[in-house]
Automatic annotation (TrEMBL):
Transmembrane segments: none annotated. It comes from Rhodoglobus aureus. The keyword Transcription regulation applies. Gene3D superfamilies: GntR ligand-binding domain-like, Winged helix-like DNA-binding domain superfamily/Winged helix DNA-binding domain. It comes from the Bacteria. InterPro entries: GntR_C, TF_FadR/GntR_C, Tscrpt_reg_HTH_GntR, WH-like_DNA-bd_sf, WH_DNA-bd_sf. This is GntR family transcriptional regulator. Residues 13-80 form the HTH gntR-type domain.
Length: 236
């Protein structure tokens, strides 16, 4: 497995936070393959860090059920069934659609300022989508959605949604990016900001249904003719 395009860590972000976020995003994107065993030293070399924060991050992922310990070898990525992914998407629809609708319906000058601060995140997502840098794309995507949901003021909701996102698998995302379609899907994030600024609850709820729907449709799995996922071993 080789690393392609790993950027420098953001200012003030600890090595452990950087490693944990990168590995979680790589798991979600399918860059770390279910059933494959990865060693901490190998991952550390590719990420340009020591093995210690990688082991710590992987043990966190073990506790979250995203990887298992493979004795004397490393960590094995766990499988997530189609039924489990359907359940995750269903819960996200039940939580995020009405909450995002409430955020859109709210009237607050301070909230509007916070919404405008989300636009640079979308700009960054457009850039990483164009470069097909899926790991950093998903990191920024998670930041966008959790910061947006945080405007509702319920920290438990944000934590729950973040955990649900971590358990998702988007094995088809690379195919979407390679086809040039990921940028267009990413523009939906601009539309979410605009819907909230316009206080358009109906538009926001429809946007969220469609957006979460990507998780179980075009982002869910590679085409049947695509190479087997075990051939994709790049952490970006």
């Amino acid at each position: 497995m080789t690393v392609g395009g790993v950027p420098g860590r953001p200012p003030r972000q600890s090595v452990r936070e950087y490693v944990a976020a990168t590995l979680r995003a790589a798991l979600i994107a399918g860059e770390l393959v279910p059933g494959q065993v990865y060693s901490a030293p190998t991952l550390a070399t590719q990420l340009g860090v020591s093995a210690t924060p990688v082991r710590e991050a992987m043990l966190d992922l073990v506790r979250d059920g995203m990887v298992d310990v493979a004795p004397n070898t490393g960590f094995r990525v766990t499988e997530v069934t189609a039924a489990e992914l359907d359940h995750i998407a269903e819960i996200r629809l039940l939580l995020e659609v009405p909450i995002m609708g409430e955020i859109a319906a709210a009237v607050s000058a301070e909230r509007d300022v916070q919404l405008e601060l989300l636009r640079p995140l979308v700009d960054s997502m457009i850039d990483t989508a164009q470069r097909q840098d899926l790991t950093n794309y998903l990191n920024t995507d998670t930041t966008f959605h959790t910061q947006f949901l945080a405007l509702h003021g319920n920290d438990e909701l944000v934590t729950t949604v973040r955990r649900l996102r971590d358990r998702s698998r988007l094995d088809g995302l690379r195919s979407v990016a390679e086809a040039g379609d990921l940028v267009e899907s990413t523009r939906e994030h601009y539309a979410m900001i605009d819907a909230a600024l316009s206080h358009d609850r109906t538009a926001m709820e429809q946007l969220m249904r469609e957006h979460i729907g990507h998780v179980r449709t075009d982002w869910a799995a590679p085409p049947a003719s695509a190479p087997h996922s075990n051939q994709r071993k790049t952490v970006q």
